[in-house]
Amino acid sequence: MWKSKLRLKHCGKITATVILLSLLTTSLVYAEPSITQPPNLTGSGTRLYSEYEIELLIDVLTEAAHEEIQKAAAEAAKEAVLSVIEREAAAMREATLQQAEALRWRLEMERQMKAVKDAKRAGIKNAIIAGVVCLFGGLVIGISGTIYLGGR
């Protein structure tokens, strides 16, 4: 945002400089060169221009100003479009990062859920094995105790 403002200020300075320079410099006058000194020179050395020459100079300056204004407007539009594109790119980058983070957390959750399921299966399997061992142990102790006590 600040870049575009600075560039617009820069374009404004350039436009103002070009307009001032075009006003201060002598422009080409399209007429036949005079062999003798023009009679409308005053004693101070300044030349008096005719209305046609003034209008021609105004037209040239106006055209140059319009061209510079169009260039500045094109630059401003280009900067605006570039800033919009930069914002869109930043938003897309942020969205991509958020999606990657969400995917990472989803994979982490799936891994944790698988670990919980495996732990449950292992717990059930261990409980069944412990139950079977206790059953057989109880049967062995019970049968051997019955045999031992029954034989007396």
Explain how this protein is built.
The structure is a single chain. The chain is mainly α and 152 residues long. The protein has one domain. It is 81% helix and 0% strand. The longest helix is centred in the middle third of the chain and has 100 residues, at 51-150.
Layout of secondary structure:
Elements: H1 2-24, H2 51-150
Helix pairs in contact: 1-2
List keywords for this structure.
mainly alpha
Domain module tally: 1
Anisotropy-based shape: rod-shaped
Number of strands: 0
What share of residues is helical? over 70%
Work out the helix count: 2
Mean pLDDT: 83
Alpha carbon gap, first and last residue: 103 Å
Oligomer: single chain
Kindly provide the radius of gyration, computed on alpha-carbon positions and rounded to a whole number of angstroms: 47 Å
Major sheet attributes: none
Q: Name the beta content range.
A: under 5%
Helix/strand-derived class?
mainly alpha
Poorly predicted ranges (pLDDT <50, ≥5 residues)?
Answer: none
Order of helices and strands: HH
Brief account:
The protein has 152 residues and is mostly helical.
